[in-house]
Amino acid sequence: MTGDESLRRLRVVLVDDHALFRAGARAELGRQFEMVGEAGTVAEAVAAIHRSLPDVVLLDVHMPDGGGVQVLRSCTDVLGTTRFLALSVSDAAEDVVGAIRAGARGYVTKTIAANELADAVTRVAAGDAVFSPRLAGFVLDAFGTSAGDVAAHEDELDRLSAREQEVMRLIARGHTYREVAGELFISIKTVESHVSAVLRKLQLSSRAELTRWAAARRLL
Amino acid sequence: MVAPTWLAGTVNSRPADPADPATPANPATPATPATPANPATPAAQPTHARPPLVRSAEGRGLGGVARGVAKHLGVSVALVRWAFVGTSVLFGAGALFYVFLWAMVPREGADGRGPLPILLRLRWTRRTAMVVAGAALLAIGMLLAAQAAGANVHWEWWLPTGALLAGVGLAWSQLEHRGGPGRAAGGDAVPKADIAGPPRPAAGQAWAGRSPVSWARLAGGVVLVIAGVVLLIGQNRPVASLGYAIVAGVAVVAGVGTVLAPWWARLLRELGDERAARAREAERADIAAHLHDSVLQTLAVLRAQSEDPDAVRRLARAQERELRRWLYETRAPASDSVAAGLKDVVAEVEDASGVEIGIVVVGDAPPWPAAEALLRALREALTNATRHGAPPIDVYLEVSERGIEAYVRDRGAGFDLAAVSSDRLGVRESIIGRMQRSGGSARVSRALGGGTEVRLAVPASAGGGAR
Q1: Which of A90, A133, A179 is the closest to B449 by Cβ?
Q2: What is the ipTM of this complex?
Q3: B441-446 and B452-459: which strand pairing?
Q4: Domains of chain B (ranges plus CATH)?
Q5: How many CB pairs under 8 A join A and B?
Q6: Most confident of B235-239, B241-245, B279-283, B448-452
Q7: Is it true that A1-127 and A129-220 share their CATH fold?
Q8: Closest residue in chain B to residue A174, using alpha carbons only
């Protein structure tokens, strides 16, 4: 699937209520991607996304009138083709995990370097998940890190496998996917599939502790 | 039920450390009604037109009760006074009611901050209990002595009266006991905390959070009072008519209660609304004060220092950190939390170096000595990273039941421990040596993607552990 898409420039919509940030991101990302829309409110965002059907939406999770989660809830019909990458300055786990559980494919902080942001957009467009160190930390915190928290079966939704824990831990330590792959002597593709599996668990898990953890931080 | 919204008004005031062992009761602490009045007593006047019921300070005959009631009800003082005198004919009911109001209603004070009613300030401590018990024993002793001396003691009057007083005392002593075990156990040591506390919750809230013991005491008080009244009134009456009288009494109480219930409910609701409004106002003022002290000050300093990009960056980062903490975190003090300790360490290094450091923390625990040593070593590692490495710098700290594991990662040129001369104390002594002395370990390695990674670990202690 890469052959065709790498030739075509990815179409990106930018959703953020700060015009200043949009201007900066547009300048940075415009060199590499086709910026097909911008929005500063939830309503504008929903309209822009349905109008232009972009490959990737860069979505600020923290906005007035409902924020990124609200946008995601109004765009469930396009989730199959349009990928959402959550962006935030917020340290609040509630916003971030809320956006992931509503369908975002990744989360990065706004302090991310421009080239890394571009990488993240490309990765999300290719269907992979993007985990920043902070999101990996949230995941470890929510799913637990003790020996009893390790999943026995690969398809268990409520616990991370030992390998997934290792991958999350390395990402939380600030390693890139490439460095994680080198550290664990596995391919980048394998790292990506582990991360996607964790994302799926984060979205679908009904783990009681996740719920409790989330409730303690006022989310879901 | 009215939510305790006044709690929201104390966003910044941290509750006392719950982990601290309770201060032993200090017998020297005066636990008398002389404690100064609660300064946080409601400042706002009620919004409805009727003036609040307070004892009048001016133009008073005795305690200012009649004038206060007259003002409150909007009738003439003379009428109220005559009502008190007139009803006093009925077994002294008017006089009793007057005394009751005098004790329960606050005196009119400057800007409405009257002292709390005396009875609300009475604290049911071991000391007052002793005094009351002593007084009761003394009274019994005097009666017995009088009887022995040949006087005719009317026990059929004294016993019910005693029961009545004991019941009232028991029930009223529960006015103070709203907090449950903490207050009940604290005895003499606790009252001080009340002085700075939020307004004493009245009526509705006083019923919330009572312990079963407190309910039992209240019920016991009521039963004692009923028994006292029945014995007092039912003297020399046939038992059958007594039963009938009890039924009639209950029916009257129920009837009057039903009639008055809507007013009572409205009063509670108004109280709750008023308290909520006050809490909102206090919260707003709190936010304004915080923004004024932090963000506005920083902005002013930033404007003054706009020529120095380094200072601007540093100030902005420090302010951002502070505001974010205030907005998103309910922070435990560093003495209670390894995570909070780490954040303090990172903040110090960021302030000193001007380099931004990314933090990820998983889990938390109260610190133990080895954990504190790890934080000190971590500070050294971070300082090295900001000095010799290159950003971005990331810290990862994980607290689990196995212990603490921390990583500091930078993207500098890398670092070879063997190449560092042994007289350089930084890494060897303050990182590796410190970790080994506290039973932990430290490892400095070249990270795969370039740069240096320092790993620090300490095992869990008996006293420390996960979350």
Answers
A1: A179
A2: 0.79
A3: antiparallel
A4: 41-282 (no CATH), 331-459 (3.30.565.10)
A5: 62
A6: B279-283
A7: no
A8: B394
Q: Are strands A11-15 and A34-39 parallel, antiparallel or unpaired?
A: parallel
Tell me if B402 and A146 make a contact (CB, 8 A cut-off): yes
Which residues lie below 8 Å from residue A214, measured CB to CB, with a gap of 6+? A93, A94, A97, A142, A220
Sign of CA dihedral A204, A207, A213, A217: positive
Contact status of A185 with chain B (Cβ, < 8 Å):
no
Would you give the DSSP letter of residue A129? Answer: -
- Judged against a pLDDT cut of 50, whether residue B15 lies above it is answered with no
Q: Which among A62, A108, A173 is the top mutation candidate for probing chain B, defined by the most B β-carbons within 10 Å of its own β-carbon?
A: A173
Sheet holding B441-446: strands in order across?
A: B357-362, B393-400, B403-409, B452-459, B441-446
What is the tens place of the pLDDT at every residue in A154-206?
666 677 888 888 899 898 888 888 888 988 899 988 988 888 888 888 888 76
Dihedral angle computed from the Cα positions of residues B70, B71, B74 and B80, in that order, rounded to the nearest 10 degrees: 0
Closest CA of chain A from B439, distance in Å: 21
For residues A173 and A27, what is the distance between their CA atoms, to the nearest angstrom? 30
Bond preceding residue B115 cis, omega within 30 of 0: no
Query: pLDDT for B348-381, tens place per residue?
Result: 888 888 788 888 888 888 888 888 888 888 888 8
DSSP code at position B426: I
pLDDT digits (tens, 9 = 90+) for B258-270: 999 988 889 888 8
Contacts of B361 in chain A (CB under 8 A): 137, 141
Topology classification of domain A129-220: Arc Repressor Mutant, subunit A (1.10.10)
Contact map slice: A 33-92 vs B, CB within 8 A: 90-92
Per the model's pLDDT, the better-predicted residue between B407 and B305 turns out to be B407
> What Å distances lie between residue A208 and A157, A162, B467, CA to CA?
12, 19, 17
Q: ∠ at Cα B204 (B203, B210), nearest 5°?
A: 95
Element (H, E) at A83: strand A83-88
pLDDT of residue B255: 92
Q: Which CATH superfamily is domain A1-127 in?
A: Response regulator (3.40.50.2300)
Residues of chain A with pLDDT under 50: 1-5, 218-220
Spell out the domain ranges in chain A.
1-127, 129-220
Pair A108, A86: CB distance under 8 Å: yes
How far is the first Cα of chain B from the last one, in angstroms, to the nearest whole number? 33
Three-state DSSP state, A92: coil
Per-residue buried b or exposed e for B60-91, using 16+ beta carbons within 10 Å of the residue's own CB: beebbbbbbbbbbeeeebeebbebbeebeeee
Give B60 or A83, the one with higher predicted confidence: A83
What pLDDT shows up at residue B332? 62
Place B28 in a pLDDT band, splitting at 50, 70 and 90.
very low
Note whether A178 contacts B449, CB cutoff 8 Å: yes
Min distance A89 CA to chain B CA atoms (Å): 10
**How many C-beta atoms surround the C-beta of residue B357 within 10 A?**
21
**Closest Cα in chain A, distance from residue B358 (Å):** 9
Structure confidence by residue, pLDDT tens digits, B69-121: 888 888 888 888 888 888 877 777 788 888 778 777 777 663 444 444 455 55
In one letter, which amino acid is B246? Answer: I
